[in-house]
């Protein structure tokens, strides 16, 4: 279908705008990824799509298209962590410290990364993974290698300068055929949307209202665990485990982030252990977070 039809569907106004069907959304995403649409058309559609806003069916169709470009490299006993591609700005990442805590278990961590995207323009998972030694149970996939078509949209997305529907789609890729998936969520209404979009990819899917939109818990907050069509809400408080980490409210550089990861404080290590316990629970290695925490404490 002519790409203009899709722009017209999302960018004409409330009275005329309409949701795309599954097949239309799948075709739309193929045209964007194959660069059959001009950059200006892509930017116009993505902006209109966000303002309309996106429907679950549209996300499902677009994700179906994305999946056709990815040849999975299965990693057994793995859990995929879906991080936002615009990075972190105020606090260090925990994933490398979490992986070290999990070395005594059979659970592997999978994460993806790419060049930084708007709107935060923070430190990315790629910035970290390409600068430190990764433990054997931490598997990083660079998007330019396994999904080059999406990588090639970086420039037009940076010029647009806004989050779009793609920011939601790209978090969980299925690149390692992981049984379990975890991603961050900002708002509770997105929980059911994420389950509808990604739920069929994973045996269990968790959404954590984590630090800076990541699946990393830094302070008291909620996690939603989806399995077999059911969603359970769990409140997790680090203070319950004797953790009193003070989050930064100021922007830190990539160099500062790397330093904090490579020279972690005792409280940051405790926080990493709690997050590792959460992953063990999600991945059915323990019956509760408390039990997982006891396992990691020996």
How would you explain this protein's 3D organization?
- By secondary structure, this protein is of the alpha/beta class.
- It is built from 14 helices and 7 strands.
- It has helices at 3-11, 22-33, 39-51, 56-67, 95-101, 125-129, 143-146, 148-151, 154-160, 165-169, 189-198, 254-262, 266-282, 289-296; strands spanning 78-82, 108-113, 138-142, 180-184, 204-208, 221-227, 230-236.
- The longest helix has 17 residues, at 266-282.
Given as residue ranges, the uncertain stretches (5+ residues, pLDDT < 50) are none
CATH class of the largest domain: Alpha Beta
Task: Summarize the amount of helix as a percent range.
Answer: 40-55%
Oligomer: single chain
Summarize the structure.
This protein is α/β, with parallel strands linked by helices. It has helices at 3-11, 22-33, 39-51, 56-67, 95-101, 125-129, 143-146, 148-151, 154-160, 165-169, 189-198, 254-262, 266-282, 289-296, and strands at residues 78-82, 108-113, 138-142, 180-184, 204-208, 221-227, 230-236. It has a seven-stranded mixed sheet with strand order 3-2-1-4-5-6-7, sandwiched between helices.
Features:
41% helix; 298 residues; 7-stranded mixed β-sheet; 14 helices; Pyrimidine Nucleoside Phosphorylase, Chain A, domain 2; alpha/beta; 13% strand; Transferase, Pyrimidine Nucleoside Phosphorylase, Chain A, domain 3; 2 domains
Topology, element by element:
Layout: H1 3-11, H2 22-33, H3 39-51, H4 56-67, E1 78-82, H5 95-101, E2 108-113, H6 125-129, E3 138-142, H7 143-146, H8 148-151, H9 154-160, H10 165-169, E4 180-184, H11 189-198, E5 204-208, E6 221-227, E7 230-236, H12 254-262, H13 266-282, H14 289-296
């Amino acid at each position: 279908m002519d790409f203009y039809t899709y722009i017209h569907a999302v960018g004409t106004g409330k009275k005329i705008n309409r949701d795309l069907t599954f097949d239309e959304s799948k075709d739309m995403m193929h045209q964007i990824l194959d660069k059959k649409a001009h950059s200006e058309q892509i930017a116009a559609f993505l902006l209109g799509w966000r303002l309309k806003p996106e429907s679950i069916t549209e996300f499902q169709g677009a994700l179906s298209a994305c999946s056709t470009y990815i040849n999975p490299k299965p990693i057994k006993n793995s859990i995929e962590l879906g991080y936002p591609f615009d990075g972190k700005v105020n606090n260090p990442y925990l994933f490398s410290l979490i992986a070290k805590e999990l070395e005594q278990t059979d659970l592997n961590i999978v994460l993806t990364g790419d060049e930084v995207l708007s709107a935060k323009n923070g430190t990315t998972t790629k910035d970290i993974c390409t600068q430190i030694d990764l433990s054997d149970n931490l598997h990083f996939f660079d998007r330019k290698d396994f999904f080059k078509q999406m990588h090639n949209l970086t420039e037009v997305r940076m010029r647009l300068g806004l989050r779009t529907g793609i920011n939601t789609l790209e978090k969980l890729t299925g690149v390692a055929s992981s049984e379990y998936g975890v991603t961050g969520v900002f708002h509770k209404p997105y929980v059911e949307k994420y389950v509808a979009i990604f739920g069929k990819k994973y045996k269990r899917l968790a959404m954590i209202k984590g630090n800076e939109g990541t699946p990393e818990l830094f302070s008291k907050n909620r996690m939603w665990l989806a399995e077999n069509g059911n969603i359970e809400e769990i409140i997790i408080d680090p203070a319950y485990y004797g953790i009193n980490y003070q989050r930064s409210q100021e922007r830190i550089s990539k160099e500062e982030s790397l330093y904090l990861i490579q020279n972690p404080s005792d409280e940051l290590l405790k926080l990493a252990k709690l997050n590792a316990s959460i992953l063990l629970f999600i991945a059915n290695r323990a019956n509760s977070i408390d039990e997982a925490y006891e396992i990691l404490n020996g």
